[in-house]
Description:
The complex is a heterodimer. Chain A is an alpha/beta fold. In chain A, the strands form 3 sheets. In chain A, strands 6-5-7-8-9 form a 5-stranded parallel sheet, with helices on one face. Chain A has a 4-stranded antiparallel sheet with strand order 2-3-1-4. Chain A has a 4-stranded antiparallel sheet with strand order 10-11-13-12. Helices cover 33% and strands 23% of the residues of chain A. By secondary structure, chain B is of the alpha+beta class. Chain B is 34% helix and 33% strand. Chain B has helices at residues 16-32, 68-71, 91-102, 131-146, 174-189, and strands spanning 6-11, 39-47, 52-59, 66-67, 72-77, 80-85, 107-111, 114-117, 127-129, 153-158, 162-168. Chains A and B meet through helix 5 of A and helix 1 of B.
Amino acid sequence: MLEPVMFTGGLYKHDLVVELVEDLGGYILQKNVTQSEIILLILVPSEDKAALEDLSTELRGELIRAPLAGTEVAVVTPTLAIHHLPHTACDIAEYLRRHGSKTNMMGLARGVGREIAQINEYETALINEHDAAVFIFGNFQDCIKKKEGLYRNITVPVVVTGGPQIDSKELPYAFEYVPSIGRVAHRARKATEIGTLDRIVESIGRALDKTRGSIAKDPLTTSPPRIMDAVREQVPDIEFSYSPLPIALNLNGVRVKLPYQTYKDAVSAVSFDEGVKLGEIATIRPSRMKDYILVSILPASETGFVF
Amino acid sequence: MDPMEVFKIEVTGQEEYGAKKYREIIMDILQDLGLIRSIGRLYVYIDILKPFFAVYGRLRSGIPPLTAKDVGDVMRVSGGYQIKINDEEHMADLLRVLWEHYGRERVEQPARDMLIIASDTSPSEIVVADLEAEFLQDLTDALVRIAPEGFRNRRNEMTKDSFLFIAAEESLTPEIVSEIKEKIREMENA
Lengths: 307, 190
Protein backbone atom coordinates (compact mmCIF):
# COMPACT_ATOMS: atom_id res chain seq x y z
CA MET A 1 0.00 0.00 0.00
CA LEU A 2 1.44 3.35 -1.06
CA GLU A 3 1.16 6.25 1.35
CA PRO A 4 0.89 9.83 0.04
CA VAL A 5 3.22 12.26 1.82
CA MET A 6 4.59 15.74 1.26
CA PHE A 7 8.21 16.62 1.92
CA THR A 8 9.07 20.28 2.51
CA GLY A 9 12.67 21.21 3.03
CA GLY A 10 15.80 22.77 1.66
CA LEU A 11 16.92 22.24 -1.90
CA TYR A 12 20.34 21.14 -0.67
CA LYS A 13 20.62 17.35 -0.57
CA HIS A 14 17.02 16.80 -1.62
CA ASP A 15 18.35 14.28 -4.17
CA LEU A 16 18.87 11.94 -1.22
CA VAL A 17 15.11 11.95 -0.66
CA VAL A 18 14.43 11.32 -4.34
CA GLU A 19 16.94 8.45 -4.39
CA LEU A 20 15.54 6.88 -1.24
CA VAL A 21 11.98 7.03 -2.59
CA GLU A 22 13.08 5.37 -5.82
CA ASP A 23 15.01 2.68 -3.89
CA LEU A 24 11.98 1.96 -1.75
CA GLY A 25 9.82 1.54 -4.85
CA GLY A 26 7.87 4.72 -4.33
CA TYR A 27 7.11 7.53 -6.76
CA ILE A 28 7.83 11.24 -6.91
CA LEU A 29 4.57 12.77 -8.11
CA GLN A 30 5.50 16.42 -8.18
CA LYS A 31 8.54 18.54 -7.55
CA ASN A 32 8.15 22.26 -6.80
CA VAL A 33 11.24 24.36 -6.37
CA THR A 34 10.78 27.80 -4.85
CA GLN A 35 14.18 29.47 -4.57
CA SER A 36 16.03 27.45 -1.93
CA GLU A 37 12.97 25.46 -0.81
CA ILE A 38 11.55 22.36 -2.33
CA ILE A 39 8.19 20.67 -1.99
CA LEU A 40 7.98 17.04 -3.07
CA LEU A 41 4.77 15.07 -3.36
CA ILE A 42 5.66 11.47 -2.79
CA LEU A 43 4.01 8.07 -2.78
CA VAL A 44 5.98 5.79 -0.49
CA PRO A 45 5.27 2.19 0.57
CA SER A 46 3.67 2.52 4.02
CA GLU A 47 5.96 -0.12 5.60
CA ASP A 48 9.02 1.96 4.60
CA LYS A 49 7.69 5.34 5.60
CA ALA A 50 9.82 5.30 8.76
CA ALA A 51 13.01 5.31 6.66
CA LEU A 52 11.83 8.42 4.83
CA GLU A 53 10.85 10.06 8.10
CA ASP A 54 14.34 9.44 9.50
CA LEU A 55 15.97 10.94 6.43
CA SER A 56 13.77 14.02 6.44
CA THR A 57 14.50 14.62 10.13
CA GLU A 58 18.20 14.33 9.35
CA LEU A 59 17.83 16.89 6.54
CA ARG A 60 15.77 19.19 8.83
CA GLY A 61 12.85 18.83 6.47
CA GLU A 62 9.21 18.23 7.21
CA LEU A 63 7.25 15.18 6.17
CA ILE A 64 3.47 15.33 6.44
CA ARG A 65 0.69 13.12 5.19
CA ALA A 66 -0.94 14.50 2.05
CA PRO A 67 -4.22 12.59 1.82
CA LEU A 68 -5.21 14.11 -1.51
CA ALA A 69 -1.91 13.43 -3.34
CA GLY A 70 -2.30 11.80 -6.71
CA THR A 71 -5.78 13.16 -7.32
CA GLU A 72 -7.17 15.97 -9.37
CA VAL A 73 -9.93 18.15 -7.96
CA ALA A 74 -11.92 20.80 -9.83
CA VAL A 75 -12.82 23.96 -7.92
CA VAL A 76 -15.80 25.38 -9.78
CA THR A 77 -17.20 28.89 -9.38
CA PRO A 78 -20.24 30.30 -11.21
CA THR A 79 -17.95 32.66 -13.17
CA LEU A 80 -14.46 34.09 -12.96
CA ALA A 81 -15.73 37.57 -12.01
CA ILE A 82 -14.72 39.53 -8.92
CA HIS A 83 -17.91 38.41 -7.14
CA HIS A 84 -16.60 34.86 -6.80
CA LEU A 85 -12.87 35.34 -6.97
CA PRO A 86 -10.34 35.61 -5.50
CA HIS A 87 -11.16 35.07 -1.86
CA THR A 88 -13.27 31.95 -1.37
CA ALA A 89 -12.25 30.13 -4.52
CA CYS A 90 -8.52 30.75 -4.14
CA ASP A 91 -8.59 29.89 -0.44
CA ILE A 92 -10.26 26.56 -1.13
CA ALA A 93 -8.01 25.77 -4.09
CA GLU A 94 -4.88 26.68 -2.17
CA TYR A 95 -5.96 24.66 0.84
CA LEU A 96 -6.61 21.59 -1.29
CA ARG A 97 -3.18 22.01 -2.87
CA ARG A 98 -1.57 22.08 0.55
CA HIS A 99 -3.10 18.69 1.17
CA GLY A 100 -1.50 17.36 -1.97
CA SER A 101 -4.23 17.47 -4.57
CA LYS A 102 -3.75 18.83 -8.05
CA THR A 103 -6.40 21.53 -8.12
CA ASN A 104 -7.81 23.13 -11.24
CA MET A 105 -9.93 26.24 -10.94
CA MET A 106 -12.82 26.61 -13.32
CA GLY A 107 -15.27 29.41 -13.89
CA LEU A 108 -18.43 28.50 -15.73
CA ALA A 109 -19.46 30.62 -18.70
CA ARG A 110 -23.06 31.14 -17.57
CA GLY A 111 -23.22 29.83 -14.03
CA VAL A 112 -24.53 33.02 -12.45
CA GLY A 113 -27.97 33.87 -11.13
CA ARG A 114 -30.80 31.94 -9.63
CA GLU A 115 -33.07 31.23 -12.58
CA ILE A 116 -30.58 31.71 -15.39
CA ALA A 117 -27.65 29.54 -14.20
CA GLN A 118 -26.49 27.05 -16.82
CA ILE A 119 -23.69 24.61 -17.49
CA ASN A 120 -22.88 23.25 -20.92
CA GLU A 121 -21.85 19.82 -22.16
CA TYR A 122 -18.19 20.77 -22.51
CA GLU A 123 -17.94 22.08 -18.96
CA THR A 124 -19.66 18.97 -17.59
CA ALA A 125 -17.29 16.70 -19.52
CA LEU A 126 -14.26 18.65 -18.33
CA ILE A 127 -15.34 18.39 -14.68
CA ASN A 128 -15.98 14.68 -15.18
CA GLU A 129 -12.29 14.21 -16.06
CA HIS A 130 -11.43 15.06 -12.44
CA ASP A 131 -11.68 12.80 -9.40
CA ALA A 132 -13.96 15.13 -7.46
CA ALA A 133 -15.33 18.65 -7.73
CA VAL A 134 -16.07 21.47 -5.31
CA PHE A 135 -18.89 23.82 -6.33
CA ILE A 136 -18.70 27.17 -4.57
CA PHE A 137 -22.03 28.88 -4.06
CA GLY A 138 -23.23 31.93 -2.18
CA ASN A 139 -25.16 33.05 0.87
CA PHE A 140 -28.82 32.45 0.00
CA GLN A 141 -30.17 28.97 0.60
CA ASP A 142 -32.87 29.28 -2.00
CA CYS A 143 -30.22 29.98 -4.68
CA ILE A 144 -28.05 27.08 -3.55
CA LYS A 145 -31.00 24.71 -3.85
CA LYS A 146 -31.98 26.09 -7.26
CA LYS A 147 -28.48 25.74 -8.63
CA GLU A 148 -28.56 21.97 -8.25
CA GLY A 149 -29.01 21.76 -12.02
CA LEU A 150 -25.38 22.78 -12.47
CA TYR A 151 -24.02 19.54 -11.02
CA ARG A 152 -26.88 17.10 -11.55
CA ASN A 153 -25.21 15.48 -14.57
CA ILE A 154 -21.74 15.28 -13.11
CA THR A 155 -20.61 11.73 -12.46
CA VAL A 156 -17.73 12.43 -10.06
CA PRO A 157 -18.58 13.23 -6.42
CA VAL A 158 -19.47 16.91 -5.97
CA VAL A 159 -18.91 18.71 -2.68
CA VAL A 160 -21.06 21.84 -2.52
CA THR A 161 -20.09 24.78 -0.34
CA GLY A 162 -22.25 27.73 0.62
CA GLY A 163 -23.13 30.03 3.47
CA PRO A 164 -26.28 28.92 5.31
CA GLN A 165 -26.99 25.64 7.06
CA ILE A 166 -28.90 23.34 4.73
CA ASP A 167 -29.94 19.78 5.45
CA SER A 168 -28.00 17.55 3.04
CA LYS A 169 -31.26 15.74 2.21
CA GLU A 170 -32.33 18.87 0.43
CA LEU A 171 -29.36 18.58 -1.94
CA PRO A 172 -29.70 14.98 -3.13
CA TYR A 173 -27.24 15.30 -6.03
CA ALA A 174 -24.38 16.63 -3.91
CA PHE A 175 -21.97 14.22 -2.24
CA GLU A 176 -21.85 16.49 0.80
CA TYR A 177 -22.68 20.07 1.67
CA VAL A 178 -20.21 22.18 3.65
CA PRO A 179 -21.83 25.31 5.16
CA SER A 180 -20.45 28.64 6.42
CA ILE A 181 -18.24 29.49 3.46
CA GLY A 182 -20.48 31.52 1.19
CA ARG A 183 -19.57 34.64 -0.69
CA VAL A 184 -17.09 36.71 1.33
CA ALA A 185 -15.01 39.72 0.37
CA HIS A 186 -11.96 38.93 2.49
CA ARG A 187 -9.40 36.15 2.82
CA ALA A 188 -10.01 33.31 5.28
CA ARG A 189 -7.98 34.15 8.36
CA LYS A 190 -10.12 33.47 11.42
CA ALA A 191 -9.91 30.09 13.11
CA THR A 192 -13.53 29.33 12.20
CA GLU A 193 -12.87 30.07 8.54
CA ILE A 194 -9.80 27.84 8.48
CA GLY A 195 -11.89 25.17 10.22
CA THR A 196 -14.38 25.33 7.36
CA LEU A 197 -11.57 24.81 4.87
CA ASP A 198 -10.51 21.76 6.89
CA ARG A 199 -14.04 20.41 6.63
CA ILE A 200 -13.95 20.80 2.84
CA VAL A 201 -10.69 18.85 2.69
CA GLU A 202 -12.17 16.11 4.90
CA SER A 203 -15.24 15.97 2.72
CA ILE A 204 -13.16 15.69 -0.46
CA GLY A 205 -11.13 12.98 1.28
CA ARG A 206 -14.32 11.01 1.96
CA ALA A 207 -15.46 11.50 -1.64
CA LEU A 208 -12.14 10.18 -2.95
CA ASP A 209 -12.24 7.25 -0.53
CA LYS A 210 -15.62 6.33 -1.91
CA THR A 211 -14.23 6.35 -5.45
CA ARG A 212 -11.20 4.34 -4.29
CA GLY A 213 -13.59 1.86 -2.69
CA SER A 214 -15.51 1.37 -5.90
CA ILE A 215 -12.27 1.00 -7.89
CA ALA A 216 -11.07 -1.64 -5.40
CA LYS A 217 -14.08 -3.83 -6.23
CA ASP A 218 -12.79 -4.15 -9.78
CA PRO A 219 -9.11 -3.17 -9.52
CA LEU A 220 -7.29 -1.33 -12.28
CA THR A 221 -4.90 -3.35 -14.42
CA THR A 222 -2.00 -1.29 -13.08
CA SER A 223 -1.61 1.74 -10.86
CA PRO A 224 -1.53 5.30 -12.28
CA PRO A 225 1.89 6.16 -10.75
CA ARG A 226 3.42 3.22 -12.55
CA ILE A 227 2.09 4.57 -15.86
CA MET A 228 3.41 7.99 -14.98
CA ASP A 229 6.88 6.55 -14.42
CA ALA A 230 6.82 4.55 -17.65
CA VAL A 231 5.61 7.51 -19.73
CA ARG A 232 8.24 9.76 -18.19
CA GLU A 233 10.92 7.26 -19.11
CA GLN A 234 9.74 6.28 -22.60
CA VAL A 235 8.33 9.55 -23.92
CA PRO A 236 11.29 11.85 -23.22
CA ASP A 237 9.58 14.85 -24.88
CA ILE A 238 7.46 15.20 -21.74
CA GLU A 239 10.46 17.04 -20.28
CA PHE A 240 9.70 19.88 -22.69
CA SER A 241 6.11 20.30 -21.60
CA TYR A 242 5.82 23.71 -19.98
CA SER A 243 3.13 22.64 -17.51
CA PRO A 244 4.14 22.70 -13.86
CA LEU A 245 2.94 19.11 -13.65
CA PRO A 246 3.52 17.48 -17.07
CA ILE A 247 1.84 14.23 -16.04
CA ALA A 248 -1.15 14.72 -13.73
CA LEU A 249 -2.41 11.71 -11.82
CA ASN A 250 -6.05 10.76 -11.50
CA LEU A 251 -7.43 7.89 -9.48
CA ASN A 252 -8.06 5.86 -12.63
CA GLY A 253 -5.37 7.10 -14.99
CA VAL A 254 -3.14 9.98 -15.95
CA ARG A 255 -3.31 13.11 -18.07
CA VAL A 256 -0.24 13.52 -20.24
CA LYS A 257 0.28 17.16 -21.13
CA LEU A 258 1.47 16.75 -24.71
CA PRO A 259 -0.46 17.40 -27.96
CA TYR A 260 -2.78 14.47 -28.64
CA GLN A 261 -2.31 14.12 -32.40
CA THR A 262 1.49 14.16 -32.27
CA TYR A 263 2.06 11.96 -29.25
CA LYS A 264 -0.90 9.58 -28.99
CA ASP A 265 1.01 6.76 -30.73
CA ALA A 266 4.12 7.27 -28.61
CA VAL A 267 2.03 7.14 -25.42
CA SER A 268 0.10 4.14 -26.64
CA ALA A 269 3.37 2.30 -27.41
CA VAL A 270 4.78 2.71 -23.89
CA SER A 271 5.68 -0.80 -22.76
CA PHE A 272 6.03 -2.51 -19.39
CA ASP A 273 8.37 -5.27 -18.16
CA GLU A 274 5.40 -7.65 -18.12
CA GLY A 275 5.31 -7.42 -21.91
CA VAL A 276 2.17 -5.35 -22.42
CA LYS A 277 1.77 -1.99 -24.07
CA LEU A 278 -0.12 0.91 -22.57
CA GLY A 279 -2.55 0.96 -25.51
CA GLU A 280 -3.65 -2.58 -24.57
CA ILE A 281 -4.48 -1.86 -20.94
CA ALA A 282 -5.85 1.65 -21.18
CA THR A 283 -8.00 3.84 -23.38
CA ILE A 284 -6.14 6.80 -24.78
CA ARG A 285 -8.41 9.72 -25.64
CA PRO A 286 -8.06 13.43 -26.24
CA SER A 287 -8.62 15.31 -23.01
CA ARG A 288 -11.14 18.15 -22.80
CA MET A 289 -8.38 20.19 -21.23
CA LYS A 290 -6.45 21.91 -24.06
CA ASP A 291 -5.27 19.16 -26.44
CA TYR A 292 -3.78 16.92 -23.80
CA ILE A 293 -3.89 13.13 -23.75
CA LEU A 294 -6.17 11.41 -21.26
CA VAL A 295 -5.18 7.86 -20.31
CA SER A 296 -7.83 5.83 -18.46
CA ILE A 297 -6.67 2.47 -17.18
CA LEU A 298 -9.02 -0.43 -17.90
CA PRO A 299 -10.18 -2.51 -14.94
CA ALA A 300 -9.14 -6.14 -14.43
CA SER A 301 -12.58 -7.32 -15.56
CA GLU A 302 -11.85 -6.03 -19.06
CA THR A 303 -8.18 -7.00 -19.46
CA GLY A 304 -8.27 -10.15 -17.35
CA PHE A 305 -5.07 -9.46 -15.40
CA VAL A 306 -3.50 -7.14 -12.84
CA PHE A 307 0.18 -6.27 -12.54
CA MET B 1 -19.36 49.29 15.15
CA ASP B 2 -20.67 50.63 11.85
CA PRO B 3 -19.10 53.87 10.68
CA MET B 4 -22.48 54.76 9.16
CA GLU B 5 -25.30 56.39 11.08
CA VAL B 6 -27.86 53.91 9.80
CA PHE B 7 -27.27 50.60 8.06
CA LYS B 8 -30.36 48.45 7.64
CA ILE B 9 -30.62 45.31 5.62
CA GLU B 10 -33.78 43.31 4.97
CA VAL B 11 -34.09 40.03 3.13
CA THR B 12 -37.39 38.27 2.50
CA GLY B 13 -37.82 34.59 3.38
CA GLN B 14 -35.68 32.48 5.72
CA GLU B 15 -32.41 34.12 4.76
CA GLU B 16 -31.05 35.60 7.99
CA TYR B 17 -27.62 34.21 7.19
CA GLY B 18 -27.63 35.89 3.79
CA ALA B 19 -28.59 39.22 5.37
CA LYS B 20 -25.78 38.94 7.92
CA LYS B 21 -23.21 38.03 5.28
CA TYR B 22 -24.28 40.72 2.84
CA ARG B 23 -23.77 43.23 5.61
CA GLU B 24 -20.15 42.04 5.88
CA ILE B 25 -19.66 42.02 2.10
CA ILE B 26 -20.98 45.58 1.76
CA MET B 27 -18.74 46.82 4.56
CA ASP B 28 -15.70 45.01 3.11
CA ILE B 29 -16.20 46.37 -0.41
CA LEU B 30 -16.97 49.94 0.68
CA GLN B 31 -13.92 49.87 2.93
CA ASP B 32 -11.72 48.47 0.14
CA LEU B 33 -12.73 51.31 -2.17
CA GLY B 34 -12.48 53.96 0.55
CA LEU B 35 -16.10 55.04 0.21
CA ILE B 36 -17.44 54.22 3.61
CA ARG B 37 -16.96 57.66 5.15
CA SER B 38 -18.90 59.41 2.42
CA ILE B 39 -22.07 57.40 3.01
CA GLY B 40 -24.28 58.45 5.90
CA ARG B 41 -27.19 56.03 5.76
CA LEU B 42 -27.64 52.82 3.87
CA TYR B 43 -30.77 50.72 3.36
CA VAL B 44 -30.56 47.38 1.58
CA TYR B 45 -33.60 45.39 0.51
CA ILE B 46 -33.22 41.95 -1.06
CA ASP B 47 -36.00 39.69 -2.26
CA ILE B 48 -34.33 36.48 -3.35
CA LEU B 49 -37.52 34.83 -4.62
CA LYS B 50 -38.35 37.47 -7.23
CA PRO B 51 -35.28 37.99 -7.31
CA PHE B 52 -33.93 41.53 -6.94
CA PHE B 53 -31.38 43.46 -4.93
CA ALA B 54 -31.77 47.12 -3.99
CA VAL B 55 -29.55 49.60 -2.16
CA TYR B 56 -30.58 53.09 -1.18
CA GLY B 57 -28.02 55.40 0.38
CA ARG B 58 -27.78 58.96 1.63
CA LEU B 59 -24.47 60.67 1.02
CA ARG B 60 -22.65 62.91 3.42
CA SER B 61 -21.98 66.52 2.41
CA GLY B 62 -20.63 67.01 -1.10
CA ILE B 63 -16.95 67.05 -1.93
CA PRO B 64 -15.69 70.37 -3.41
CA PRO B 65 -13.75 70.16 -6.69
CA LEU B 66 -9.98 70.03 -6.39
CA THR B 67 -8.22 73.24 -7.50
CA ALA B 68 -4.57 73.95 -8.27
CA LYS B 69 -4.00 75.56 -4.87
CA ASP B 70 -5.14 72.31 -3.15
CA VAL B 71 -2.54 70.31 -5.06
CA GLY B 72 0.43 72.62 -4.41
CA ASP B 73 1.63 76.04 -3.23
CA VAL B 74 1.05 78.76 -5.81
CA MET B 75 3.55 81.66 -5.68
CA ARG B 76 4.09 84.78 -7.75
CA VAL B 77 7.60 84.78 -9.27
CA SER B 78 9.24 87.01 -11.83
CA GLY B 79 7.69 86.33 -15.22
CA GLY B 80 4.74 84.31 -13.99
CA TYR B 81 3.54 81.88 -11.34
CA GLN B 82 5.22 78.91 -9.72
CA ILE B 83 3.44 75.85 -8.37
CA LYS B 84 5.29 73.64 -5.91
CA ILE B 85 3.48 70.29 -5.92
CA ASN B 86 2.66 68.68 -2.57
CA ASP B 87 0.42 65.90 -3.78
CA GLU B 88 1.87 64.12 -6.79
CA GLU B 89 -1.23 61.95 -7.24
CA HIS B 90 -2.92 64.68 -9.28
CA MET B 91 0.18 65.81 -11.22
CA ALA B 92 -1.02 64.38 -14.52
CA ASP B 93 -4.43 66.02 -14.19
CA LEU B 94 -2.86 69.34 -13.23
CA LEU B 95 -0.52 69.33 -16.24
CA ARG B 96 -3.39 68.49 -18.56
CA VAL B 97 -5.58 71.39 -17.39
CA LEU B 98 -2.67 73.83 -17.38
CA TRP B 99 -1.77 72.86 -20.95
CA GLU B 100 -5.38 73.34 -21.97
CA HIS B 101 -5.62 76.68 -20.20
CA TYR B 102 -2.28 78.32 -21.03
CA GLY B 103 -0.89 76.26 -23.91
CA ARG B 104 2.05 73.88 -23.69
CA GLU B 105 4.71 76.49 -24.52
CA ARG B 106 3.84 78.54 -21.42
CA VAL B 107 4.01 75.67 -18.91
CA GLU B 108 7.48 74.60 -17.88
CA GLN B 109 8.54 71.86 -15.50
CA PRO B 110 12.13 72.48 -14.34
CA ALA B 111 11.95 69.85 -11.58
CA ARG B 112 9.75 66.88 -10.79
CA ASP B 113 7.63 68.76 -8.26
CA MET B 114 7.86 72.24 -9.76
CA LEU B 115 5.85 74.01 -12.47
CA ILE B 116 6.39 77.51 -13.81
CA ILE B 117 3.65 79.21 -15.79
CA ALA B 118 4.48 82.21 -17.93
CA SER B 119 1.31 84.20 -17.40
CA ASP B 120 -0.10 87.10 -15.42
CA THR B 121 -3.27 85.31 -14.39
CA SER B 122 -3.01 83.16 -11.29
CA PRO B 123 -3.70 79.43 -11.78
CA SER B 124 -4.85 78.93 -8.15
CA GLU B 125 -8.56 78.59 -8.94
CA ILE B 126 -8.24 76.28 -11.92
CA VAL B 127 -10.19 73.05 -11.32
CA VAL B 128 -7.84 70.08 -11.49
CA ALA B 129 -10.22 67.22 -10.83
CA ASP B 130 -13.88 66.80 -10.07
CA LEU B 131 -13.63 64.55 -7.03
CA GLU B 132 -17.38 64.23 -6.76
CA ALA B 133 -17.62 62.75 -10.25
CA GLU B 134 -14.80 60.34 -9.36
CA PHE B 135 -16.57 59.42 -6.16
CA LEU B 136 -19.82 58.69 -8.00
CA GLN B 137 -17.90 56.51 -10.47
CA ASP B 138 -16.29 54.58 -7.62
CA LEU B 139 -19.65 54.24 -5.93
CA THR B 140 -21.24 52.76 -9.05
CA ASP B 141 -18.33 50.36 -9.33
CA ALA B 142 -18.79 49.34 -5.70
CA LEU B 143 -22.53 48.78 -6.16
CA VAL B 144 -21.97 46.58 -9.22
CA ARG B 145 -19.46 44.57 -7.21
CA ILE B 146 -21.80 44.24 -4.25
CA ALA B 147 -24.89 43.09 -6.16
CA PRO B 148 -25.06 39.34 -6.85
CA GLU B 149 -23.41 38.74 -10.19
CA GLY B 150 -26.33 37.20 -12.01
CA PHE B 151 -28.46 40.28 -11.46
CA ARG B 152 -27.64 42.07 -14.67
CA ASN B 153 -30.67 44.26 -15.21
CA ARG B 154 -29.63 47.32 -13.32
CA ARG B 155 -30.99 50.77 -12.62
CA ASN B 156 -28.98 53.45 -10.88
CA GLU B 157 -30.60 56.71 -9.84
CA MET B 158 -28.09 59.16 -8.43
CA THR B 159 -28.80 62.61 -7.08
CA LYS B 160 -26.54 65.07 -5.28
CA ASP B 161 -27.22 63.59 -1.89
CA SER B 162 -28.61 60.09 -2.44
CA PHE B 163 -28.51 57.05 -4.70
CA LEU B 164 -30.84 54.16 -5.44
CA PHE B 165 -29.39 51.07 -7.09
CA ILE B 166 -31.59 48.20 -8.19
CA ALA B 167 -30.36 44.98 -9.80
CA ALA B 168 -32.53 42.07 -10.89
CA GLU B 169 -32.36 38.91 -12.91
CA GLU B 170 -35.50 39.60 -14.94
CA SER B 171 -36.38 42.89 -16.62
CA LEU B 172 -37.21 45.67 -14.19
CA THR B 173 -40.87 46.63 -14.35
CA PRO B 174 -42.31 49.90 -13.04
CA GLU B 175 -44.23 47.80 -10.46
CA ILE B 176 -41.02 46.32 -9.03
CA VAL B 177 -39.35 49.73 -8.92
CA SER B 178 -42.29 51.31 -7.10
CA GLU B 179 -42.51 48.34 -4.72
CA ILE B 180 -38.82 48.78 -3.85
CA LYS B 181 -39.21 52.54 -3.39
CA GLU B 182 -42.20 51.97 -1.13
CA LYS B 183 -40.31 49.41 0.94
CA ILE B 184 -37.29 51.65 1.32
CA ARG B 185 -39.49 54.53 2.40
CA GLU B 186 -40.92 52.22 5.06
CA MET B 187 -37.44 51.24 6.22
CA GLU B 188 -36.42 54.88 6.39
CA ASN B 189 -39.44 55.83 8.46
CA ALA B 190 -39.36 52.81 10.74
